[in-house]
Design goal:
The structure is a single chain. By secondary structure, the chain is mainly beta. It has a domain of 31 residues. Helix content is 4%, strand content 15%. The chain has 1 helix and 6 strands. The strands form 3 sheets. Strands 1-2 form a two-stranded antiparallel sheet. Strand 3 and strand 4 form a beta hairpin. It is elongated, with a radius of gyration of 39 Å.
Length: 105
C-alpha cells in the first residue's frame, strides 16, 4: 500500500470554513473535523463529564457484632436520686389495643 502525499503541493480544505490549507498545517479536532491551525478549538472540559468512582461499602471478612448480646440492657432516665441519669434495675412495658366491632348489614 502506498504512502500519502506530503509534499509542497498537498493541500486540504477546512471542514469549518472551506479555506485551503497545507495538509501539514491542518489539525483534527475532537469531533473529527479537519481544520486549519488558526481555526482549531480544543474540546471544552464541560463536554467530558468527570469520572465518578463508587464509594466502597462492603467490609472484607465482616463478622457480626456479638458484644451487644452479652451486655445488660441499660435505659437512663432523669428520675431518681436527683441525678440526671441513673441505671434502671427493672423495666416493664405493657400495651393494649382495645376492642374492634365489625357489623355487616
Amino acid at each position: 500500500m502506498g504512502a500519502f502525499a506530503s509534499g509542497k503541493y498537498a493541500f486540504g480544505l477546512s471542514d469549518r470554513s472551506g479555506f485551503r490549507y497545507r495538509m501539514k498545517d491542518m489539525r483534527k479536532e475532537w469531533n473529527g473535523s479537519l481544520v486549519g491551525n488558526d481555526e482549531y478549538e480544543e474540546k471544552h472540559p464541560s463536554l467530558t463529564p468527570p469520572r465518578v468512582s463508587t464509594d466502597p461499602e462492603a467490609l472484607r471478612n465482616a463478622r457480626p457484632d456479638n458484644s451487644d448480646d452479652i451486655s445488660a440492657f441499660v435505659v437512663y432516665t432523669n428520675v431518681g436520686l436527683g441525678l440526671i441519669g441513673t441505671k434502671m434495675e427493672s423495666f416493664e412495658a405493657t400495651s393494649s389495643l382495645g376492642s374492634v366491632t365489625v357489623s355487616i348489614t
